[in-house]
Amino acid sequence: MPVKGRPREFDVDDALAAALRVFWSKGYEGASLTDLTEAMGITRPSLYAAFGNKESLFKKALDLYEQEKLAYTRRALEAPTVKGVVERMLRGALENQCSDCEPKGCLGVISSIACGEGAEAIREHVIARRASSRQALVDRFERGKAEGDLPPDTDIAGLTSYLFAVFQGMAVQAGAGASRADLERLVTTTLAMWPGR
Hints:
197 residues; 2 domains
């Protein structure tokens, strides 16, 4: 009869959520193993046994971040017009940035900007994930252009880059202490400038 290992003495989901908050507030490189284990309430051997190394823990935390904190982006793509997609995405980003219970800024922005040579693989991983999100938006904008939501001469790649720059700017400004009113003005201005219907 096989011998069972000792049962885990911690909730894996709770530990992962705690790790996410550490990565989100400090970035990949800024989060030490001590920061992580203290926040997660576990030992280093338990971290390695449950999640692998720091890099694999970060990737699992990024999965959780996308699943929970960025779920609004998937729902936004279902809006009937391109402008509706953009408005839902901007308002979702605004709510994320203004939440009282989470760190400010964007985990992807924080972890892709601040990566030195030792974390280049993490930076590339974050960029690859962003590329798939970007492609989903490009595809939706192309559909909207074909449906007449955008002018026929719209540069879809340029418009998508612009929107990503707005999202990243919101994250950076929120992380630097911008008020909700400041970010709401940014959303309103972006929507007012948006081409098409």
